[in-house]
Amino acid sequence: MDEKETILNDYAFLVSETDEKGIIRFANRDFCDIAEYSLEELIGKPHNVVRHKDMPKTAFKDLWETVKKGEIWTGYVKNATKNGGYYWVFATVYPFSSCDGTNGYLSCRRKASKDEIKKISKLYEVWIIEETK
């Protein structure tokens, strides 16, 4: 059975906040709606609850290495929905200090274009093959 793709509209802006270990502390309505989770289902869960099996480990290794150095990471991510579908986003992940004084990460995501998805899908396929060698 083919997975159902959810295509973001041009105005969708998915935002989530995690602690330093990647545990979700906040998710906006766009993120909840696209990922098909309620806010209550996401709070306290690891952000990788939306990780899709087609994502190469290399991409997340790069993300974590970048943000743990205090730098901003950008990249394309294929995420899984609660009901077994998927959606593509262009993500920007920022290290930051929350208003309560704790450190964490803020992720802001927008729609990825068909051309962007086509290019990055080919690259990710190569990375996954390399990871399995």
From TrEMBL:
Pfam family, one: PAS_3
InterPro entries with a match to the protein in the record: PAS, PAS-like_dom_sf, PAS_fold_3
Domain PAS fold-3: 26-101
Name the UniProt record assigns to this protein: PAS sensor domain-containing protein
